Task: structure prediction
Amino acid sequence: MLDQIDLEIPQRAVTALVGPSGAGKTSLLRLLNRLDDPREGEIRYKGSPIGGIDVKELRKKVGFLFQVPVMFPGTVRSNLYKAAELAGRAGGCQFRC
Result:
């Protein structure tokens, strides 16, 4: 359970959350990416309550990596194409295949 979290992450910073299992790292990341909504308190992004920001727009700007990578069925190449497609960049794919 998260309690009394006050965290400010500088723009464009790469930040790692570390701690023991059950400390709330995943819960915090899920809240920041709006996979879950807080029961109490509020989360702000660039000074605005996160609940008022379109989820798709927020997720374009705030990302996180899972500890265990997940791939779609298929090859690494097909996964890279899928990622580019989902990002709306399929036509401008910059990697060699």
In short: The mean pLDDT is 81. The helical segments are 25-32, 55-61, 76-86. Residues 81 and 90 are 7 Å apart (CA to CA).
